[in-house]
């Protein structure tokens, strides 16, 4: 029981770390990401274009598109970077 719970927690932490890595990469290229989103006519088109341009995975791209602009624009950059560092350790 303990082993299964630990494996589950580890898998969730790895998934979250993967998402955070994508968010950090999006923050590093915020102007391009916003431009791609604005140029896209639909959410699906934005999703495809971001995946092509930055090699984001599907979950990473979905997280980026669901994020509020103020967060994506870097107001919470430190929070994302701190959480990513915590997951890596």
Brief rundown of the structure:
By secondary structure, the chain is mainly alpha-helical.
List the helices and strands and how they pair.
Layout: H1 2-28, H2 30-39, H3 43-54, H4 58-66, H5 69-75, H6 77-88
Helix pairs in contact: 1-4, 1-6, 2-3, 3-4
Describe the fold and architecture.
The protein has helices at 2-28, 30-39, 43-54, 58-66, 69-75, 77-88. By secondary structure, the protein is mostly helical. The longest helix is centred in the N-terminal third of the chain and has 27 residues, at 2-28.
Which tags fit this structure?
elongated; mainly alpha; 6 helices; 89 residues
SS field, number of helical segments: 6
Main pleated sheet: none
> What would you report as the Rg, rounded to the nearest angstrom?
15 Å
Q: H/E order of the elements?
A: HHHHHH
Query: What's the average pLDDT?
Result: 89
Q: What distance separates the N and C termini?
A: 24 Å
- The structural class is mainly alpha
Low-confidence stretches: none
Name the helicity range. Answer: over 70%
Total number of strands: 0
Proportion of residues in extended strands = under 5%
Q: What is the approximate shape?
A: elongated
């Amino acid at each position: 029981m303990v082993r299964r719970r630990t494996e589950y927690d580890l898998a969730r932490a790895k998934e979250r770390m993967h998402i955070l890595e994508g968010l950090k990469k999006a923050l590093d290229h915020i102007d391009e990401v916003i431009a791609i989103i604005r140029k896209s006519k639909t959410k699906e088109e934005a999703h495809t274009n971001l995946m092509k341009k930055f090699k984001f995975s599907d979950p990473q791209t979905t997280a980026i598109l669901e994020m509020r602009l103020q967060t994506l624009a870097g107001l919470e950059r430190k929070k994302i970077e701190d959480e990513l560092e915590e997951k890596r350790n």
